[in-house]
Amino acid sequence: MVDQASLVERRLLATARIGLLTVAVAMQFGFYGAFRLSAGTAIPAAEMPVYATLGVVAVGCAAGLLFRTRLLAPLRWVGVTVLLGCSAAMSSILTLDPVPRAENWSLGVIGWYGVALLFDVRLGWVAAFFGVHTTLLVWPVVASGAPLSQLSAMAITVVAVVVFQFGVALSALLVRALATAAERTAREEERLRISEEAAVATAGHRARRYADLRVTTLPLLAGFAAGELDPRDPTVRRLCAVEAARMRRLFGESEDVEDRLAHDLGAIIDVAERHGASVHLSVRGSPVEVPAPVRRDLLAPISEALVTAGSDARVTVLHSPDTVRVSIRCAAPELPVTRPDTVEFTESVSNGQLWMETAWRSR
Amino acid sequence: MAITVTVVDDHPAILAGIRAWYALADPPVEVVAAGASVGVAWTPPGDKADVVVLDLNVEHEAVSYRTTVRRLVDAGRRVIVYTMQEDEDVALSCLDIGVSAFLTKAEGNDHLVAATVAAAENRPYLAPALAGAIVANRQAQQPKLSDREREVLTQWFQCESKQLVADRMSITPRTVGTYLDRVRLKYANVGRPAPTKAALLARAIQDGYVDIDEL
Hints:
The structure holds 2 protein chains of 2 kinds.
Chain A: H1 2-39, H2 48-67, H3 73-93, H4 98-103, H5 105-117, H6 123-143, H7 148-225, H8 234-252, H9 260-274, E1 278-284, H10 292-309, E2 312-319, E3 323-331, E4 344-350, E5 353-361
Parallel strand pairs in A: 1-2
Antiparallel strand pairs in A: 2-3, 3-5, 4-5
Helix pairs in contact in A: 1-2, 1-5, 1-7, 2-3, 2-5, 3-5, 3-6, 5-6, 5-7, 6-7, 7-8, 8-9, 8-10, 9-10
Chain B: E1 3-8, H1 12-23, E2 29-35, E3 51-54, H2 65-74, E4 78-83, H3 88-97, E5 101-104, H4 108-120, H5 128-135, H6 147-159, H7 162-169, H8 173-188, H9 195-207
Parallel strand pairs in B: 1-2, 1-3, 3-4, 4-5
């Protein structure tokens, strides 16, 4: 989900940046270029290198956006350094006459490129960029001792341009807020959808389990009622033990406890111990949430082996950071256990000892 | 010469059980002092024993088990914690303090004698309950274990039989033991310094288990 969120944010920022770049390019090549052409005057030779360098910045920025949605950080800072270099160069070329200096094309164009490059970084950096850019332009005039009236006239233009551009940079905050809100809504919808699906799955699974009981438990009871089954028969007793453990687990499922897996296992061990098993349970690690269907599949084979073994048994639950493992070591039961579908299952028998593990990847 | 042991446990049945196991041990192990308080490990004849077998519950609320264990370890005593506590945090903190081995009461029958002999010789011993605690360890400060080592630990915790682990992983029981020893040594090489940890590592280097570069 985090990836999706940042994707939304990156897309929005990239779109905004393309817009800003378009403005800068239009200013430089469209308006200023057209103005020069229509006026029939070439761009002053001294300004040409700066004009060309800014063109390179525009191409670099566009290429960066074309291949990736995000500008690489080193490229960004190289671009900013180049821009400030252009700003310093222009400042040294222009005359010290305050008003023409302020109205020069470079003030606005460099500013727009700066906003495009620095759109998605902290506002402090944008402010610092404008601070340096403006100071480079204004300081020589102040240092030359221009009168206050001239400085004020210059300030009107400079402040109007720079503050407007800074205001546009501020809108990055708005874009971020929008992205966060969109992401939160998407996440909430996803969560709802998952919990609805889980509820449906659980209900379905439970219905199937009760249906299983009808198939397995009811015939046993019917057999007893009809006198066809003999409770003294070891096979019958084993079948009863398996059914008892299954029912105990099913009834325990709605109880609200912290470690559901260990709780369900406790219920099975209860039944097994009543059938003469001596069970040692070791649980390690912090419990993680295991979905009910998975929990049932993790425990079903363990339960079958445990209640039919009737011997000493070692049962372990291990919550390692990425996997939940349940294992049993006991005397090998006569009948093989049912293999689960949804969890990993490993089994080996040696010297009459069964060692079996069910495992589920929690991550 | 027999390995000498001081046993600190407040239950007479446990004391009797431990004496019985040691009586059958090879090499011979002799319980030179036993009692319900850790005082027996500090006073003659218990103060000179090679190994102290300590139940964590004996001191009740007077001092924490950490303090009790730390004092013994810092005095250079080789301590085997033998406890009802299944909690992995307790096991890992005992390991960090520098105990020679950590066993739960359920493991006594199979592991206490072997752990005692190992402790007396400054050799590593890693019983299944502790293996489980190590695999489940989520603390930030822990040695890096390989996937294979984690697999051995997990299986050793589950089945308590080196032979079964060996069969499943298609290696020899001896190799299983080597994996366990290496994990134990990695834990001796991190955290709080203790004389027992240093002795364990020194012995391992001497035995050629690990070389200094690996640590």
